[in-house]
Sequence to fold (331 residues):
Amino acid sequence: MRIYIFGVGEGNNIVRNCLKRKAVICGYIDNNQALHGQKMHGKEIVGLHSISKNYDVILISIQKYHAVYSQLLSAGIEKEKILCFYSIYSIFDKRFRSLFNLRDWKKAVYHYNRKRVKQFFSPLDPYIRASNKWINERGDQIYRLNYDLDPESVVYDLGGYHGDFTQAMVDKYHCYVWVFEPVPKFADSIKERFKDDPKVHVFCMGLAEKSSNEILYFDEDGSSVYKKGSHHQMKIKYYAAKKFFREHKVTNIDLMKINIEGGEYALLEHLIQTGDIKKIKNIQVQFHNIPGIHAWYRMIKIWIKLDYTHYVTWKFRPYIWENWRKRVNRQ
Fold:
């Protein structure tokens, strides 16, 4: 395919780097008359009215392409012979797909137009689809707070943060809530928030597969031992779930909410292995896509094993929220 490239700025280099080898560049077009007659990569820079008629496409390499597109139409160029590199709708044109490696094109357009491309491709992303569905169905109000609980019920809030979920449980059900928050300043604020409520118990630690002290990379509600990079680090305490259950004679948990930034994998694997998973009536969990810990593979294995003792009541996958309810007569 024989093409002219309109524009000789930085976008020109990006366009050429994304072109497939079968594309033949006839020359370059630019409105700057001072550049006319000069050569770029062995091809002449010309004005629009000096181009040869022997071409298939004029490719606009300028990010703000709308004015140039109008200029070409006004000059009598057929719209079928115009392609805009930075238009996200270009991928629907067969000629465009034949000219470019779409993976390289997407990277280039992300560099210049990240927000629009993200919005354009988001319906194709299962996480974005699930997230939009969660928002549209008011998941935080409808799904996360509706359970068969009463004032004698016991709720475990793993990843207490500021205590908002605990507050919602207390307000709606007046139940017992055991909060586990390993970040000291968050744990202290929760203790202060519920200091007059004897049914709320706050533990400055996280439940895990084993007892240990770990380095946490602090990032507010995204704080994690797995998400390295934060300059603010602190030591936190983990306590083995099996040991905690034995020491506190835990026999029944009506609801366990788990939002612990990657720690959910090891914890659920541990609870399944020890059989303590059977003590939990409802498991409300948010899995996290943490690099380097085989998150997707482990999540699927957990789903398969959980299905022996629990069943899914609602789910927004991947990596939003889901709830598992204990099967009847699974002791």
Observations:
- Residues 102-121 form the longest helix (20 residues).
- The chain has a mean pLDDT of 88.
- The first strand starts at residue 2 and ends at 6.
- The radius of gyration is 29 Å.
